[in-house]
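B., you asked whether I could sanity-check this one before it goes into the benchmark set. Here's the sequence:
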Amino acid sequence: MNKPKWLSGISFASFLAQHNRNGIIHCAACNVSERDAEMTVDHIVPRIEDGSDEPSNLQPLCRSCNSRKQARPDAYWSRKHYFDGFIDRDRLRASQNDFVMGPIDEYADFFAKPYSEINRKLFTYAQTVGAGKSLGMFALPFALNAVAKPNAPRVDKMLIVTKNIQLRDQLADEIIKEPVKYKIINESPSVITIDGSHMLGDDSIDHDIAVMCPHMLWPSIDNDGAGVVKAQWGPMTMNVMRRYPLIIFDEMHYAYSHIARLVRVATNSLVFGFTATPINSAGDLLDDMVIMSAFTYNDAQINDGSMKNIYIPNGLPVADIINDME
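And here's what the prediction gave me:
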């Protein structure tokens, strides 16, 4: 087992002495030995939650278990999260059950993988206006957690980003009230609105869902004069991306260049988008987009009578990207 650069020699020696079993280090999660798998030094309480580098806060994890754990404390794995609970899918509309939760069910093995293996794409639900996006977004983490395997990522909290204050406040109010109103669940989620940059770095407020406007997330963009564009991310933005394993952009086409940059650096999160306009000005699908499903004009007419049409060009459906990544 190799010493990490960030760990002192004295601390590493103490760590090895603590976890040495007859001269061999074993993974604290799956018990595989260093003879059969690459071993890493893991923080029990992550650094982003003020975990120290002291040997008492360190444990050996094989590379596979460390990848699955990501930046979560050990208590995360045994804790029952809000989105692990029961959701009455029979009370959801077709756009929410069949077109949002349904694709996660269909590709359960894919979405059960460590998020770090399947992210870096914008998984998109194209839905006509009036489809009930608020409850569709609310239902998504229940679907992800339902297909999660033991010791695999689950959603303990999610972030929803929408384009202005009015929509932010409306969405937060709907997500608090409507799931209980329509008897989809028995208990409302804990919802906060992030209304200032001071909240981006504050991990002390317990909640299930956060809703915010996007301007605080965006990086500063620099051009080096040679045509190379660089995005400089603020430390609080990176903290937000580590905090939320699920990030959803509502009507994500409005600021896609920024969202595309965020998708590429959100290494611990799955990023989803909901929109009625999943195309750019040329009529093409946006880059790095994977279409999960399309709840179109005809579907809306059958299910809820919505009159808003959306255009879905020929593009990359979820089946294609999943086949490519397996």
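One thing to flag: The CA atoms of residues 130 and 297 lie 10 Å apart. Otherwise nothing jumped out at me.
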